[in-house]
Design goal:
Layout lengths: L4 H9 L4 E3 L6 E2 L2 E13 L15 E5 L2 E4 L4 E11 L4 E7 L1 H4 L3 E2 L5 E2 L4 E10 L5 E4 L3 E9 L30
C-alpha cells in the first residue's frame, strides 16, 4: 500500500519515519520531494578503459553547490535529506517529470530497503545534447513510500547503511560473484 500525505505526516510526527532536514512543502499527496545535496562522485578512468566488478572502483569526489552535467555524462549525487526507515516501510526513488523532459535521468537503482538509514545516492545521467546545471537544494525527485504487510525479518544492514554524501559503488564487496 502506498502511503498518503496524512500517514507520512503521522509517521514523521511520531518519529517512526525520520527525514532531516525537511520542510512541510516537500510532502506531496503520495510522496516526499527529495532535494539534491552538494556531493558528487565521478568514476575515474582506468588505464585499460574497463571497469571490473571484482575490483574497487576509484571515484573523484567533488563538493560544490553547482555541478555542470555534460551531455552523455554519468555522475553520482546525494540527497540533501537523511532518511531512517522503520523495518516495515520501503521506498521507491522516482524522478521528476519536468527534469526527465530535459533528458535528466535521476536513478536506475531506486529502491530503499526497510531499515535503511542514510542519505540516498542518486545516479544521474544527462541524455540531452546540452549540459544541465545542477544546484544543491534543488528538488530533483521524490520518494514514494509503501507499507510492508509485516515487519521485515532482516531489515537492511548492508554495505551502504549510514552513508553520507554520494557513495561509490561497493559491488566488489559482493560475495555472490
Amino acid at each position: 500500500m502506498i502511503l498518503s500525505d496524512k500517514t507520512i505526516l503521522g509517521m514523521l510526527e511520531d518519529k517512526t519515519l525520520i527525514i532531516s532536514p525537511m520542510e512541510k512543502h516537500q510532502i506531496q499527496p503520495a510522496s516526499v520531494d527529495i532535494r539534491l545535496g552538494n556531493t558528487f562522485c565521478v568514476v575515474e578512468d582506468t588505464s585499460n578503459g574497463i571497469i571490473s566488478l571484482n575490483d574497487e572502483i576509484r571515484y573523484k569526489t567533488i563538493e560544490t553547490d553547482r555541478y555542470l552535467l555534460l551531455p552523455g555524462q554519468f555522475v553520482l549525487a546525494t540527497t540533501m535529506e537523511y532518511f531512517s526507515l522503520p523495518d516495515n516501510l520501503t521506498a521507491f526513488v522516482e524522478g521528476r517529470s519536468s527534469l526527465g523532459r530535459l533528458g535528466l535521468f535521476i536513478q536506475n537503482a531506486g529502491w530503499v530497503d526497510p531499515g535503511f538509514k542514510g542519505e540516498i545516492t542518486l545516479e544521474l545521467f544527462n541524455a540531452n545534447r546540452c549540459a544541465i546545471e545542477l544546484s544543491a537544494g534543488r528538488r530533483v525527485g521524490q520518494l514514494v513510500f509503501a507499507q510492508l504487510d509485516d515487519h521485515a525479518l532482516n531489515p537492511y544492514n548492508g554495505k551502504y547503511q549510514g552513508q553520507k554524501g554520494a557513495t561509490a559503488s561497493k559491488v566488489f564487496m559482493d560475495m555472490d560473484l
